[in-house]
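Narrative of accomplishments. A recurring question from our advisory board has been how the design workflow behaves on a single, concrete structure rather than in aggregate. To address it, we present the structure tokens for one chain from the evaluation set, followed by the sequence designed for it. No filtering or post-editing was applied between the two.
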């Protein structure tokens, strides 16, 4: 699994803006940087496997109070193949390689769904429900080493 950085400015991401699979997410990522800043490695990425873009990955900003939240998604053609777990694990490894003291978190809808099962199977523990400013009630997860 390779994480390919999404650059800060749209004009620097030609390989993604020209790719139909990236059309929605590339614009969202560049807009997201305008809100949270561009702090490598705490940025957005595309996930590549065998030289094919299979999904997207992101840190939802740089760590705050030694905590960083991850987000990930798998493109429809590659779903249900374990790729989401690979993306999540790659983000966790990048976070810990960058700052071994950081705690990695994730948020999901407050229901037993694919993301909840994926996180649970990959070393995350459910902390409980919290209110998210943008998403309302969500479950918060923490990676346990």
């Amino acid at each position: 699994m390779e994480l390919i950085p999404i650059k800060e400015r749209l004009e620097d991401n030609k390989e993604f803006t020209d790719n139909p699979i990236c059309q929605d997410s590339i614009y969202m990522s560049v807009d997201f940087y305008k809100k949270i800043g561009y702090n490598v490695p705490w940025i957005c990425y595309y996930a590549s496997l065998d030289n094919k873009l299979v999904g997207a990955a992101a840190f939802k900003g740089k760590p705050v109070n030694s905590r960083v939240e991850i987000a990930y998604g798998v493109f429809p053609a590659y779903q249900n193949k374990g790729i989401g777990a690979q993306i999540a694990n790659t983000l966790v490894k990048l976070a810990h390689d960058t700052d071994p003291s950081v705690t990695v978190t994730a948020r999901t809808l407050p229901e037993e769904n694919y993301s909840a099962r994926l996180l649970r199977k990959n070393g995350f523990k459910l902390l409980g429900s919290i209110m998210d400013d943008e998403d309302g009630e969500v479950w918060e997860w923490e990676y346990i080493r």
